[in-house]
Amino acid sequence: MALPLVTAASIFVNPGVAKATSYQGLSYLLNEGFSALVFGDLNTQGGDTEGRLLVGGDMNVDGSYSVGTCTSGTEICEDSLYNLSQSNGERHDLIVGGDLSGSASWAMENGNAYIGGDLDSGVSIDGVNGNQVYSGDPMENLDNVLDKAYEQVLNLTSDLTEISAGTTGTVTDNGYSLVLKGDDPYLNIFNVTAEQWGGSGKTRYIDVPQGSQVVINVDGETVDISGGTIYYGEEGCMPEEFGIPTAPVCEDPLDYSPNTIVNYYEATTVNISAFDHEATMLAPMAELNASGGSVNGTSVVASANTSNGFEFHYRPDEEGEDGGNGDSSERVPEPNATFSLLALGVVCLLIRRQKQL
What we know:
This protein is mainly beta.
């Protein structure tokens, strides 16, 4: 079967647009269904990727793993919003530019698996529901497209630190808790150090108006996070869908993950342990080392080593799905010139929902 051509029209980033267009949330990227983009290699020991996964380099799996299926074990997996739609072979849910090696087995229930290099005999992937597994034939032009995307994502990380729209919120850090407070109804920006954002057992409170978009710029080359959590609101609550029994439930629950992006714009290493990163992670220069926990949002990293059941979760826009069925403009009011907000949707990775992907 002829393998598809990947073009810059199907994978691209456009930070120039971001500086002057209205904010449409992260829905473009999220509604394409991607949990993670790893430009280089991904090494895993247990865990899963519940949305789509793109690995530019090699992928090594050691132990139980799966891609494209919600398996968190919480009630959030019972909601169809948090599950990829069935593509019947029309969409690639796993794309690996290099080799896939190791020892694991799983079924591609909602989309195809595409392995540009060799598929190790120790890895057993079954295509079900009309989905297929392709391997051994590099996807034409993928390297060039990813190189271009990487360059533009780097520009994005810089642009996010220079946003003039929205409101720069206040940051209060007492060592064991970090409070980020903003009052802009559309966009709240916070600038913190790696020491403030990181730490062991730290509680992070994001107190912004319901539905507001949030950008958190984190400086520093190395960020270490061990334990702790992220809460929302001044009293510290979490949406019921997160399935955290010890957390107070927000009176008006909303999964803030699609609304929040953490920009690790200087990081070359991000270490997280037993921590649920309740936001999109933008760290294109960084090696992610993750033990336990999860990212509840889209992850963009240079490379990743995950263990102890770490999971890349799938958190689409509240109204959308992996095919872009939602229109976030209905939920987020169109800002006027005073609130000329950042269109994170088009500055992030856009992978078109076409048969070639």
